[in-house]
From TrEMBL:
GO terms of molecular function: fucose:proton symporter activity
Coarse class of the protein's main subcellular location: membrane
N-terminal signal peptide: none
Record's protein name: L-fucose:H+ symporter permease
Record lineage: Bacteria, Bacillati, Actinomycetota, Actinomycetes, Pseudonocardiales
Annotated source species: Saccharopolyspora rhizosphaerae
Gene that produces this protein: fucP
Length: 458
Protein backbone atom coordinates (compact mmCIF):
# COMPACT_ATOMS: atom_id res chain seq x y z
CA UNK A 1 0.00 0.00 0.00
CA UNK A 2 2.79 2.41 0.95
CA UNK A 3 4.69 1.55 -2.24
CA UNK A 4 1.62 2.23 -4.37
CA UNK A 5 0.99 5.51 -2.57
CA UNK A 6 4.61 6.56 -3.11
CA UNK A 7 4.42 5.66 -6.80
CA UNK A 8 1.27 7.73 -7.21
CA UNK A 9 3.00 10.71 -5.57
CA UNK A 10 5.97 10.35 -7.90
CA UNK A 11 3.91 10.37 -11.08
CA UNK A 12 1.54 13.04 -9.78
CA UNK A 13 -1.63 11.38 -11.06
CA UNK A 14 -3.19 11.16 -7.61
CA UNK A 15 -2.86 14.92 -7.27
CA UNK A 16 -4.87 15.80 -10.35
CA UNK A 17 -2.52 15.56 -13.34
CA UNK A 18 -0.22 13.13 -15.13
CA UNK A 19 3.41 14.17 -15.67
CA UNK A 20 4.90 14.54 -19.13
CA UNK A 21 8.51 13.78 -20.02
CA UNK A 22 9.63 17.37 -19.35
CA UNK A 23 8.07 17.47 -15.84
CA UNK A 24 5.03 19.56 -16.78
CA UNK A 25 1.56 18.05 -16.30
CA UNK A 26 -0.95 17.11 -18.98
CA UNK A 27 -3.60 19.17 -17.18
CA UNK A 28 -3.77 21.61 -14.27
CA UNK A 29 -4.92 20.33 -10.83
CA UNK A 30 -7.05 23.34 -9.96
CA UNK A 31 -7.35 22.97 -6.19
CA UNK A 32 -3.59 22.56 -5.77
CA UNK A 33 -2.95 25.43 -8.17
CA UNK A 34 -5.30 27.78 -6.29
CA UNK A 35 -3.84 26.82 -2.92
CA UNK A 36 -0.33 27.41 -4.27
CA UNK A 37 -1.43 30.78 -5.68
CA UNK A 38 -2.58 31.82 -2.18
CA UNK A 39 1.09 31.93 -1.19
CA UNK A 40 1.71 34.83 -3.57
CA UNK A 41 -0.20 37.44 -1.51
CA UNK A 42 1.79 36.36 1.55
CA UNK A 43 5.07 37.74 0.22
CA UNK A 44 3.10 40.65 -1.19
CA UNK A 45 1.91 41.50 2.34
CA UNK A 46 5.48 41.40 3.68
CA UNK A 47 6.67 43.69 0.87
CA UNK A 48 3.75 46.08 1.49
CA UNK A 49 4.59 46.32 5.17
CA UNK A 50 8.18 47.24 4.30
CA UNK A 51 6.83 50.35 2.59
CA UNK A 52 5.17 51.28 5.90
CA UNK A 53 8.28 50.54 7.95
CA UNK A 54 10.55 52.79 5.85
CA UNK A 55 8.86 56.14 6.73
CA UNK A 56 8.29 54.87 10.30
CA UNK A 57 11.94 53.95 10.87
CA UNK A 58 13.22 57.06 9.05
CA UNK A 59 11.66 59.34 11.65
CA UNK A 60 11.97 57.15 14.75
CA UNK A 61 15.66 56.36 14.15
CA UNK A 62 16.44 59.68 12.40
CA UNK A 63 17.73 58.10 9.17
CA UNK A 64 18.68 59.46 5.75
CA UNK A 65 16.72 58.23 2.71
CA UNK A 66 19.61 55.91 1.81
CA UNK A 67 19.78 54.44 5.34
CA UNK A 68 16.00 53.99 5.51
CA UNK A 69 16.21 51.98 2.26
CA UNK A 70 18.28 49.38 4.16
CA UNK A 71 14.91 47.85 5.08
CA UNK A 72 14.70 46.70 1.47
CA UNK A 73 18.37 45.75 1.43
CA UNK A 74 17.83 43.38 4.37
CA UNK A 75 14.64 42.02 2.83
CA UNK A 76 15.88 41.36 -0.69
CA UNK A 77 19.38 40.48 0.48
CA UNK A 78 17.82 37.52 2.30
CA UNK A 79 16.34 36.32 -0.98
CA UNK A 80 19.70 36.62 -2.70
CA UNK A 81 21.66 34.66 -0.12
CA UNK A 82 19.22 31.78 0.35
CA UNK A 83 17.79 31.14 -3.13
CA UNK A 84 20.49 28.66 -4.25
CA UNK A 85 20.21 26.75 -0.95
CA UNK A 86 16.44 26.63 -1.45
CA UNK A 87 16.87 25.28 -4.98
CA UNK A 88 19.16 22.48 -3.80
CA UNK A 89 16.64 21.64 -1.10
CA UNK A 90 13.93 21.38 -3.77
CA UNK A 91 16.10 19.11 -5.90
CA UNK A 92 16.73 16.77 -2.97
CA UNK A 93 13.13 16.79 -1.74
CA UNK A 94 10.19 18.41 -3.55
CA UNK A 95 8.52 21.73 -4.28
CA UNK A 96 5.95 21.02 -1.57
CA UNK A 97 8.64 20.38 1.04
CA UNK A 98 10.27 23.71 0.18
CA UNK A 99 6.91 25.46 0.57
CA UNK A 100 6.50 23.90 4.03
CA UNK A 101 9.98 25.01 5.11
CA UNK A 102 9.35 28.49 3.75
CA UNK A 103 6.12 28.83 5.72
CA UNK A 104 7.82 27.72 8.95
CA UNK A 105 10.69 30.19 8.47
CA UNK A 106 8.24 32.98 7.62
CA UNK A 107 6.44 32.25 10.90
CA UNK A 108 9.75 32.44 12.79
CA UNK A 109 10.61 35.77 11.13
CA UNK A 110 7.24 37.29 12.07
CA UNK A 111 7.70 36.12 15.66
CA UNK A 112 11.06 37.94 15.81
CA UNK A 113 9.20 41.25 15.53
CA UNK A 114 8.02 40.73 19.12
CA UNK A 115 11.51 40.91 20.72
CA UNK A 116 12.59 43.50 18.10
CA UNK A 117 9.82 45.89 19.12
CA UNK A 118 11.01 45.71 22.74
CA UNK A 119 14.75 46.00 22.04
CA UNK A 120 14.00 49.10 19.91
CA UNK A 121 17.12 49.21 17.72
CA UNK A 122 17.16 49.52 13.95
CA UNK A 123 19.62 46.65 13.49
CA UNK A 124 17.40 44.17 15.37
CA UNK A 125 14.44 45.07 13.16
CA UNK A 126 16.63 44.48 10.12
CA UNK A 127 17.48 41.01 11.47
CA UNK A 128 13.76 40.21 11.80
CA UNK A 129 13.10 41.46 8.26
CA UNK A 130 16.02 39.38 6.98
CA UNK A 131 14.60 36.29 8.73
CA UNK A 132 11.25 36.80 7.02
CA UNK A 133 13.05 37.10 3.69
CA UNK A 134 14.78 33.76 4.26
CA UNK A 135 11.40 32.07 4.53
CA UNK A 136 10.07 33.99 1.53
CA UNK A 137 13.10 32.93 -0.51
CA UNK A 138 12.07 29.29 -0.04
CA UNK A 139 8.47 30.17 -0.91
CA UNK A 140 9.23 32.16 -4.04
CA UNK A 141 11.96 29.84 -5.32
CA UNK A 142 9.51 26.95 -5.14
CA UNK A 143 6.16 28.62 -5.88
CA UNK A 144 7.13 30.60 -8.99
CA UNK A 145 8.61 27.59 -10.77
CA UNK A 146 5.96 25.21 -9.39
CA UNK A 147 3.10 27.40 -10.60
CA UNK A 148 4.52 27.41 -14.12
CA UNK A 149 4.80 23.58 -14.10
CA UNK A 150 1.35 22.67 -12.73
CA UNK A 151 -0.06 22.03 -16.18
CA UNK A 152 0.99 21.96 -19.86
CA UNK A 153 4.19 23.77 -20.79
CA UNK A 154 2.51 25.86 -23.50
CA UNK A 155 0.41 27.67 -20.86
CA UNK A 156 3.16 28.00 -18.23
CA UNK A 157 3.42 31.80 -18.58
CA UNK A 158 -0.36 32.10 -18.27
CA UNK A 159 -0.40 30.16 -14.99
CA UNK A 160 2.38 32.23 -13.51
CA UNK A 161 0.61 35.44 -14.54
CA UNK A 162 -2.58 34.20 -12.86
CA UNK A 163 -0.72 33.31 -9.66
CA UNK A 164 1.08 36.65 -9.69
CA UNK A 165 -2.30 38.40 -9.92
CA UNK A 166 -2.76 37.47 -6.25
CA UNK A 167 0.44 39.27 -5.22
CA UNK A 168 -0.94 42.84 -5.29
CA UNK A 169 -3.84 41.70 -3.09
CA UNK A 170 -1.20 40.87 -0.49
CA UNK A 171 0.54 44.20 -1.11
CA UNK A 172 -2.78 45.95 -0.54
CA UNK A 173 -3.52 43.95 2.62
CA UNK A 174 -0.05 44.75 3.98
CA UNK A 175 -0.36 48.48 3.38
CA UNK A 176 -3.88 48.62 4.89
CA UNK A 177 -2.76 46.71 7.98
CA UNK A 178 0.20 49.04 8.27
CA UNK A 179 -1.85 52.19 7.83
CA UNK A 180 -4.36 51.36 10.55
CA UNK A 181 -2.12 49.44 12.97
CA UNK A 182 1.26 51.18 12.61
CA UNK A 183 0.42 54.80 11.77
CA UNK A 184 -1.65 57.26 13.84
CA UNK A 185 -4.02 59.80 12.30
CA UNK A 186 -2.30 62.65 14.12
CA UNK A 187 0.50 65.04 13.20
CA UNK A 188 3.28 63.63 11.03
CA UNK A 189 5.85 61.45 12.79
CA UNK A 190 8.49 64.14 12.33
CA UNK A 191 6.31 66.72 14.08
CA UNK A 192 5.31 64.33 16.88
CA UNK A 193 8.91 63.45 17.67
CA UNK A 194 10.17 67.05 17.47
CA UNK A 195 7.53 68.22 19.96
CA UNK A 196 8.75 66.04 22.85
CA UNK A 197 12.03 65.48 24.66
CA UNK A 198 13.62 63.22 27.27
CA UNK A 199 11.49 60.52 28.87
CA UNK A 200 8.39 61.64 26.98
CA UNK A 201 10.22 61.24 23.68
CA UNK A 202 11.48 57.80 24.69
CA UNK A 203 7.96 56.71 25.61
CA UNK A 204 6.68 57.92 22.21
CA UNK A 205 9.41 56.02 20.36
CA UNK A 206 8.64 52.83 22.30
CA UNK A 207 4.94 53.16 21.50
CA UNK A 208 5.61 53.75 17.81
CA UNK A 209 7.96 50.78 17.56
CA UNK A 210 5.52 48.59 19.51
CA UNK A 211 2.89 49.29 16.87
CA UNK A 212 5.11 47.83 14.15
CA UNK A 213 4.54 44.27 15.38
CA UNK A 214 0.73 44.43 15.31
CA UNK A 215 0.28 43.55 11.57
CA UNK A 216 2.53 40.53 11.98
CA UNK A 217 0.15 39.02 14.53
CA UNK A 218 -2.53 38.74 11.83
CA UNK A 219 -0.05 37.39 9.29
CA UNK A 220 1.01 34.69 11.76
CA UNK A 221 -2.55 33.36 11.96
CA UNK A 222 -2.87 33.12 8.17
CA UNK A 223 0.53 31.43 7.88
CA UNK A 224 -0.42 28.71 10.37
CA UNK A 225 -3.65 27.99 8.43
CA UNK A 226 -1.72 27.73 5.15
CA UNK A 227 0.87 25.45 6.75
CA UNK A 228 -1.87 23.04 7.86
CA UNK A 229 -3.56 23.08 4.44
CA UNK A 230 -0.31 22.30 2.64
CA UNK A 231 0.49 19.54 5.10
CA UNK A 232 -2.75 17.68 4.31
CA UNK A 233 -2.89 18.33 0.53
CA UNK A 234 -1.19 15.99 -1.93
CA UNK A 235 0.84 17.64 -4.68
CA UNK A 236 2.46 16.27 -7.86
CA UNK A 237 6.24 16.35 -7.88
CA UNK A 238 6.58 17.82 -11.40
CA UNK A 239 9.92 16.17 -12.10
CA UNK A 240 11.24 15.42 -15.61
CA UNK A 241 11.12 11.66 -16.14
CA UNK A 242 14.82 11.68 -16.97
CA UNK A 243 15.49 13.03 -13.47
CA UNK A 244 13.41 10.30 -11.83
CA UNK A 245 14.97 7.50 -13.88
CA UNK A 246 18.61 8.58 -14.12
CA UNK A 247 21.16 9.75 -11.58
CA UNK A 248 22.82 11.59 -14.42
CA UNK A 249 20.11 14.19 -13.89
CA UNK A 250 21.50 15.15 -10.50
CA UNK A 251 23.61 18.05 -11.75
CA UNK A 252 25.90 19.83 -9.31
CA UNK A 253 25.73 23.55 -8.70
CA UNK A 254 28.99 23.97 -10.63
CA UNK A 255 27.66 22.08 -13.66
CA UNK A 256 24.45 24.08 -13.54
CA UNK A 257 26.25 27.43 -13.35
CA UNK A 258 28.51 26.42 -16.24
CA UNK A 259 25.50 25.50 -18.35
CA UNK A 260 23.57 28.66 -17.50
CA UNK A 261 26.59 30.94 -17.98
CA UNK A 262 26.64 29.98 -21.67
CA UNK A 263 22.95 30.81 -22.11
CA UNK A 264 22.97 34.46 -23.21
CA UNK A 265 19.17 34.77 -23.17
CA UNK A 266 19.04 33.47 -19.61
CA UNK A 267 21.67 35.98 -18.49
CA UNK A 268 19.76 38.84 -20.12
CA UNK A 269 16.64 37.66 -18.27
CA UNK A 270 18.51 37.88 -14.96
CA UNK A 271 19.49 41.46 -15.74
CA UNK A 272 15.95 42.41 -16.71
CA UNK A 273 14.51 40.82 -13.56
CA UNK A 274 17.11 42.64 -11.43
CA UNK A 275 16.05 45.97 -12.90
CA UNK A 276 12.34 45.24 -12.66
CA UNK A 277 12.38 44.23 -8.99
CA UNK A 278 14.54 47.25 -8.24
CA UNK A 279 12.07 49.48 -10.08
CA UNK A 280 9.05 48.08 -8.26
CA UNK A 281 10.68 48.19 -4.85
CA UNK A 282 12.04 51.72 -5.26
CA UNK A 283 8.70 53.10 -6.45
CA UNK A 284 6.87 51.50 -3.55
CA UNK A 285 9.52 52.37 -0.99
CA UNK A 286 9.32 56.10 -1.64
CA UNK A 287 5.67 56.64 -2.58
CA UNK A 288 4.61 57.69 0.94
CA UNK A 289 7.72 59.83 1.35
CA UNK A 290 7.03 61.53 -2.01
CA UNK A 291 3.47 62.30 -0.93
CA UNK A 292 4.78 63.91 2.28
CA UNK A 293 7.48 65.90 0.43
CA UNK A 294 5.16 67.27 -2.26
CA UNK A 295 2.21 67.92 0.08
CA UNK A 296 3.53 69.80 3.16
CA UNK A 297 1.53 69.19 6.32
CA UNK A 298 0.39 65.71 5.31
CA UNK A 299 0.91 62.89 7.85
CA UNK A 300 1.92 59.28 7.19
CA UNK A 301 -1.60 57.98 7.87
CA UNK A 302 -2.96 60.04 4.96
CA UNK A 303 0.16 59.47 2.84
CA UNK A 304 -0.49 55.72 3.03
CA UNK A 305 -3.63 56.31 0.92
CA UNK A 306 -1.39 56.98 -2.07
CA UNK A 307 0.31 53.66 -1.49
CA UNK A 308 -3.12 52.01 -1.46
CA UNK A 309 -3.96 53.75 -4.75
CA UNK A 310 -0.67 52.47 -6.15
CA UNK A 311 -1.35 48.86 -5.21
CA UNK A 312 -4.89 49.07 -6.60
CA UNK A 313 -3.41 50.41 -9.84
CA UNK A 314 -0.85 47.58 -9.83
CA UNK A 315 -3.64 45.01 -9.43
CA UNK A 316 -5.96 46.56 -12.03
CA UNK A 317 -3.10 46.91 -14.49
CA UNK A 318 -2.66 43.15 -14.70
CA UNK A 319 -6.02 42.61 -16.38
CA UNK A 320 -5.57 44.76 -19.51
CA UNK A 321 -2.03 43.36 -19.75
CA UNK A 322 -3.34 39.78 -19.74
CA UNK A 323 -5.98 40.76 -22.32
CA UNK A 324 -3.41 42.42 -24.57
CA UNK A 325 -1.06 39.43 -24.27
CA UNK A 326 -3.93 37.16 -25.35
CA UNK A 327 -4.17 39.14 -28.60
CA UNK A 328 -0.59 40.22 -29.27
CA UNK A 329 2.94 39.04 -28.64
CA UNK A 330 3.82 39.34 -24.91
CA UNK A 331 7.19 40.79 -25.92
CA UNK A 332 5.56 43.53 -27.97
CA UNK A 333 3.14 44.35 -25.15
CA UNK A 334 6.02 44.69 -22.67
CA UNK A 335 8.00 46.83 -25.13
CA UNK A 336 5.13 49.31 -25.15
CA UNK A 337 4.71 49.10 -21.36
CA UNK A 338 8.41 49.73 -20.78
CA UNK A 339 8.48 52.75 -23.10
CA UNK A 340 5.34 54.31 -21.60
CA UNK A 341 6.55 53.61 -18.05
CA UNK A 342 9.88 55.34 -18.71
CA UNK A 343 8.08 58.44 -20.01
CA UNK A 344 5.59 58.50 -17.12
CA UNK A 345 8.24 58.29 -14.39
CA UNK A 346 10.50 60.80 -16.14
CA UNK A 347 7.59 63.23 -16.27
CA UNK A 348 6.84 62.61 -12.60
CA UNK A 349 10.49 63.29 -11.73
CA UNK A 350 10.85 66.61 -13.53
CA UNK A 351 7.24 67.85 -13.81
CA UNK A 352 5.12 69.89 -11.40
CA UNK A 353 5.46 68.68 -7.82
CA UNK A 354 1.71 68.51 -7.16
CA UNK A 355 1.29 66.00 -10.02
CA UNK A 356 4.36 63.88 -9.28
CA UNK A 357 2.62 61.47 -6.92
CA UNK A 358 -0.06 60.72 -9.53
CA UNK A 359 2.60 59.95 -12.13
CA UNK A 360 4.19 57.48 -9.73
CA UNK A 361 0.80 55.86 -9.06
CA UNK A 362 0.15 55.65 -12.83
CA UNK A 363 3.46 53.81 -13.25
CA UNK A 364 2.01 50.98 -11.15
CA UNK A 365 -0.50 50.27 -13.93
CA UNK A 366 2.43 49.29 -16.15
CA UNK A 367 4.43 47.10 -13.77
CA UNK A 368 2.02 44.18 -13.26
CA UNK A 369 2.98 41.89 -16.17
CA UNK A 370 6.74 42.42 -15.91
CA UNK A 371 7.84 39.90 -13.25
CA UNK A 372 5.88 36.82 -14.38
CA UNK A 373 6.56 37.44 -18.07
CA UNK A 374 10.31 37.92 -17.56
CA UNK A 375 10.41 34.92 -15.21
CA UNK A 376 8.42 32.58 -17.46
CA UNK A 377 10.22 33.57 -20.67
CA UNK A 378 13.64 33.29 -19.04
CA UNK A 379 12.89 29.94 -17.41
CA UNK A 380 11.80 28.57 -20.79
CA UNK A 381 15.31 29.24 -22.16
CA UNK A 382 16.56 26.36 -19.97
CA UNK A 383 16.10 23.46 -22.39
CA UNK A 384 17.80 20.88 -20.16
CA UNK A 385 15.36 20.61 -17.26
CA UNK A 386 17.99 19.07 -14.96
CA UNK A 387 19.02 22.69 -14.33
CA UNK A 388 15.54 24.11 -13.86
CA UNK A 389 15.37 24.33 -10.03
CA UNK A 390 18.73 26.08 -9.78
CA UNK A 391 17.89 28.27 -12.77
CA UNK A 392 14.65 29.29 -11.08
CA UNK A 393 16.59 30.02 -7.90
CA UNK A 394 19.03 32.27 -9.76
CA UNK A 395 16.09 34.15 -11.23
CA UNK A 396 14.75 34.60 -7.70
CA UNK A 397 18.22 35.82 -6.69
CA UNK A 398 17.73 38.63 -9.20
CA UNK A 399 15.33 39.98 -6.58
CA UNK A 400 18.48 41.46 -5.06
CA UNK A 401 17.70 44.36 -7.39
CA UNK A 402 15.21 45.30 -4.70
CA UNK A 403 18.12 45.71 -2.30
CA UNK A 404 20.25 47.78 -4.69
CA UNK A 405 17.99 50.10 -6.72
CA UNK A 406 16.11 51.66 -3.75
CA UNK A 407 19.46 52.39 -2.11
CA UNK A 408 20.66 53.99 -5.36
CA UNK A 409 17.49 56.09 -5.50
CA UNK A 410 17.98 57.03 -1.85
CA UNK A 411 21.51 58.22 -2.61
CA UNK A 412 20.25 60.25 -5.60
CA UNK A 413 17.61 61.80 -3.34
CA UNK A 414 20.17 62.69 -0.64
CA UNK A 415 22.65 64.10 -3.18
CA UNK A 416 20.14 66.17 -5.18
CA UNK A 417 18.05 67.13 -2.17
CA UNK A 418 14.91 66.11 -4.09
CA UNK A 419 13.12 62.81 -3.67
CA UNK A 420 10.98 63.72 -6.69
CA UNK A 421 13.97 63.97 -9.03
CA UNK A 422 15.27 60.61 -7.80
CA UNK A 423 12.40 58.85 -9.60
CA UNK A 424 14.48 59.22 -12.76
CA UNK A 425 16.13 56.02 -11.50
CA UNK A 426 12.85 54.19 -12.07
CA UNK A 427 12.55 55.67 -15.58
CA UNK A 428 15.93 54.16 -16.45
CA UNK A 429 14.78 50.76 -15.14
CA UNK A 430 11.66 50.87 -17.34
CA UNK A 431 13.87 51.70 -20.33
CA UNK A 432 16.10 48.67 -19.67
CA UNK A 433 13.02 46.41 -19.50
CA UNK A 434 11.88 47.80 -22.85
CA UNK A 435 15.30 46.99 -24.36
CA UNK A 436 15.14 43.43 -22.96
CA UNK A 437 11.83 42.72 -24.67
CA UNK A 438 13.03 44.34 -27.89
CA UNK A 439 15.83 41.76 -27.83
CA UNK A 440 13.32 38.99 -27.06
CA UNK A 441 11.12 39.97 -30.00
CA UNK A 442 14.15 40.15 -32.30
CA UNK A 443 15.35 36.70 -31.22
CA UNK A 444 11.91 35.13 -31.70
CA UNK A 445 11.61 36.66 -35.17
CA UNK A 446 15.13 35.59 -36.20
CA UNK A 447 14.82 32.05 -34.85
CA UNK A 448 11.31 31.61 -36.24
CA UNK A 449 10.08 30.44 -32.85
CA UNK A 450 6.43 30.39 -31.84
CA UNK A 451 5.51 32.72 -28.99
CA UNK A 452 4.51 30.95 -25.74
CA UNK A 453 0.72 30.92 -25.46
CA UNK A 454 -0.26 33.85 -23.22
CA UNK A 455 -3.40 34.54 -21.21
CA UNK A 456 -6.64 33.18 -22.57
CA UNK A 457 -5.07 30.90 -25.20
CA UNK A 458 -4.63 27.64 -23.32
Amino acid sequence: MLIKSRARELDGSAAGGSPLDDGYLDRTPYFQFILLSLLFPMWGAAAGLNDILIPQFKQVFELSDAAAAFVQSAFYGGYFLIAILASRFIKRTSYKAAVMVGLVLYIVGCWLFFPASHMATYSVFLVAIFAIAVGLSFLETSANTYSSMLGPRRTSTLRLNISQTFTPLGNLAGIILGKYLVFDDEASLEQQIQQVEGAERQALVERLLGQTLLPYKYILVVLVVLLVLFAITQYPRCRPKAEVLSKKAQATVGETLKYLSTNARFLKGIGAQFMYVGLQTAVWSFTIRLALETHPGMNEFTGANYMIFGFIAFFIGKFPANFLMSRFSPAHVLIAYGAIGAVVLAAAAVGPAQWAIWGVIAANLLMGPCWPTIFGRTLDTIEDKRYQETGGAILVMAIVGGAVIPAVQGVVSDVTGSLQVSFLVGAVCFAVIMLFFLDQARHTRTAGEQEPVPAGQG
